[in-house]
Design goal:
Length: 263
């Protein structure tokens, strides 16, 4: 049984996130017929956006009514869902991005710091890079391409493009990424440059995490598969389908947590 509420990032807005969590618990109580006290008596596992710092996790745990609770970042659930119990790496590229690797009982993540400070290779980053490249053609720093000309025309020139970017959400800028991938497939120089740069970042992050040839790599997020043709051949050969979505990974981690306290 599941319920759905709004976004809950405990770093960007702690109180709003707690409000969404509590609302979810109320909805769950209504669906199951259990009282709040009965739900609070159950072991609870929460994989939350923004819970990358142990102090933040402890603060969330203290604010919730559960007698036994574990709060972790949501990246762990994504990795568990994508890989199950086998070793491997995860490349998540949606509107945001992060990378992770599990091997020999050790797990490490990099990225996931949001559009202001990171999210390299995400659809947002691809869209922004294409807009930046378009403005470079206005400055005469690179030759125009079909993609840059189409983007300039869409917003009636550089001023309109800058005005759009000033108020657009990461998701709105991320929508441009589909134009970039299509242009790259047509050998557009700007499109290919952006996609190659994103793939180079992915390859670098996997190498720095300790990836070795033969270790599985799973893509998650709607945009990540677009990078497959641009990765080095050993990484392309290691690509495997994600086994399950993050929610199933969270359920698996919740079951493992509940089993820790079983008699």
């Amino acid at each position: 049984m599941s319920v759905e509420t709004g976004p809950a990032n405990v770093t960007s807005d702690f109180e709003a996130a707690l409000g969404e969590i509590r609302r979810g618990l109320d909805l769950l109580a209504g669906r199951t017929g259990l009282s709040a006290d009965e739900i609070a008596a159950l072991p609870a596992y929460l994989g939350l956006a923004g819970a990358s710092d142990r102090a933040v996790c402890a603060r969330v745990e203290a604010a919730l009514p559960f007698a036994r609770v574990r709060v972790e970042e949501d990246r762990a659930a994504a990795l568990q869902g994508a890989l199950g119990d086998v070793d491997g790496a995860i490349v998540h590229c949606g509107t945001g991005s992060f990378f992770g690797l599990r091997q020999g009982g050790h797990t490490r993540f990099v990225g996931g710091w949001g559009s202001r400070l990171g999210d390299e290779a995400s659809s947002f980053w691809v869209g922004r890079s294409a807009l930046t490249g378009t403005l470079a053609t206005v400055d005469g720093l690179r030759p125009p391409s079909a993609l840059s000309e189409a983007l300039r025309a869409r917003w009636d020139g550089a001023a309109g493009l800058v005005a759009f970017a000033a108020h657009a959400t990461p998701g709105e800028i991320g929508e441009i990424a589909r134009d970039v991938t299509a242009a790259a497939r047509d050998a557009d120089p700007l499109g290919r440059e952006v996609m190659q740069a994103g793939a180079a970042h992915i390859a670098e992050m996997l190498d720095r995490l300790g990836w070795t040839p033969g270790l599985a790599i799973a893509f998650t997020g709607g945009f990540a598969p677009e990078y497959a043709p641009y990765l080095p051949e050993p990484m392309r050969a290691a690509l495997v389908p994600a086994a399950a979505p993050p929610i199933e990974g969270a359920v698996a981690l919740a079951r493992a947590f509940a089993a820790e306290g079983a008699p």
